[in-house]
Design a protein that fits this description.
138 residues; 4-stranded antiparallel beta barrel; alpha+beta
Length: 138
């Protein structure tokens, strides 16, 4: 009989630890701390630097006539205002951009200006937002 009560107590403890934070909050208890299930990012080992190779994680590499930071009263700011695009100050934006083709065809096959990767390419190349230099090698 004593074994059965110990077993019942162990099962009850297991059930309590498996409850969700929502169940705890309904009962007026504070939420439990998050469970650590993976290795911390600081301890992760990298064999090579991330990125590079001329590839964009945000889309295709673009060739822009110019890249200017917003918020300094430049013609870029006038263009952004006309297009009703709200961009935070100091955001690098490309103007008159076209995609670079890795196969040598298309308008952007040879980029004589500045190859960049941009986060927002949704304005048909007139303005690309959040651009950073790219090391595109066809």
């Amino acid at each position: 009989m004593r074994f059965a009560s110990v077993l019942a107590l162990a099962v009850a403890a297991t059930v309590v630890s498996a409850e969700t934070n929502a169940e705890r909050m309904v009962r007026g208890l504070p939420p439990m701390a998050p469970a650590r299930r993976a290795t911390p990012v600081e301890g992760a080992k990298r064999s090579a630097p991330s990125g590079g190779g001329g590839q964009c994680n945000t889309g295709s590499t673009q060739c822009c006539d110019s890249v200017t930071k917003s918020g300094y009263g430049t013609p870029l700011d006038d263009l952004l205002s006309l297009m009703s695009i709200d961009v935070p100050n100091d955001t690098p934006c490309g103007q008159n951009c076209s995609p670079i083709s890795a196969f040598g065809g298309g308008k952007g096959a040879n980029c004589n200006q500045q190859p960049v990767c941009c986060e927002d390419n949704s304005y048909n190349g007139l303005v690309n937002i959040g651009c950073s230099p790219s090391t595109f090698v066809p």
